[in-house]
Amino acid sequence: MLLLYNRDFGDIAEDQVSMSREDRAALTVVTETTRHNGTQFEVLLRWRTGSNRLPDNRDTALHRLNYLKGRLKRNEQLKEAHFNAMKCKLELGYIERAMGEIEKEQPLWYLPHHPVINHKKPQKIGVVFDFAAECAGIALNDRLLQGPDLTTPLIAVLCRFRLGSVAVDAGIEEMFMQVKVPEGQMDALRLWWWPD
Questions:
Q1: Which pTM does this prediction carry?
Q2: Strands (E), the chain
Q3: What is the structure's pLDDT at 157?
Q4: For residue 192, what pLDDT is reported?
Q5: Are residues 107 and 187 in contact, defined by beta-carbon separation less than 8 angstroms?
Q6: What pLDDT was estimated at residue 12?
Q7: SS3 of 168, please?
Q8: What are the phi and psi torsion angles at 140 (to 5°)?
Q9: 134-135 and 138-139 as β-strands: parallel, antiparallel, unpaired?
Q10: Residues of the chain with pLDDT under 70
């Protein structure tokens, strides 16, 4: 019976696979640098060794912003929803206006962004920050350590749902936006936006 179970639900029975050096390094950075600043968690960006040198992607990001401008001009509803979403992120402190000089020693990268519409909830617009956008063949995702996959396999979640008489499901709204990076690394996560 156990063999039959293991064949059907093999991902649960697998022995723990050892992590790669990069995964261990990423996990070490997260565990050693995560701190709570009183209101939010703050975590260092996990750079691959020697890869915090980034090409100047200012023009690429501005080109994407101009493309977005044209798209928003053609759709007034989308424009209003996207502006409201960005205004909300600004008010909640998820993004902030860049002030002062750029530190030359720190990596500098401009994240392109665009609105995404959920067809099940057309009134709710999501904002995607494109970490995979490339400049000179390099994307920010390529320069950051990915880290190990710590998610629980879906079959394990489903099996646990059957253990009790009541199942509870919850989500954290804007989860990734609620984790801050230290001030010294914020220039690697800049974005272009209109002042008003």
A1: 0.79
A2: 35-36, 41-42, 113-118, 121-129, 134-135, 138-139, 179-180
A3: 86
A4: 93
A5: yes
A6: 53
A7: coil
A8: -60, -40
A9: antiparallel
A10: 1-17, 196
What per-residue confidence (pLDDT) applies to 44?
A: 92
Which residues have CB under 8 Å from 191's CB, separation 6+? Answer: 61, 95, 110, 111, 112, 113, 129
Provide the pLDDT for residue 3: 55
The distance of Cα 177 from the centroid of its chain, to the nearest Å, equals 7
Q: Which helix (H) or strand (E) holds 151?
A: none
Q: What is the Cα–Cα distance from 8 to 18, expressed in whole angstroms?
A: 23
The tokens for 134 are 């490339």
Residue 112 DSSP SS3: coil
Residue with tokens 């790669």: 20
Rounded to the nearest 10 degrees, how much is the dihedral formed by the CA atoms of 136, 57, 55, 43?
A: -120
Kindly state the DSSP code that residue 188 receives in the 8-state scheme. G
| Contact status, residue 148 vs residue 26, Cβ threshold 8 Å | yes
Residues 6+ apart with CB under 8 A from 75: none
With contact defined as beta carbons under 8 Å apart, do 20 and 164 qualify? no
Taking a C-beta distance cutoff of 8 angstroms, is the pair 23, 31 a contact?
no
Residue type at 169 in one-letter notation: D
Contact 108, 187 (CB under 8 A): yes
Q: Which of 72, 78, 189 is nearest to 133 (CA)?
A: 189
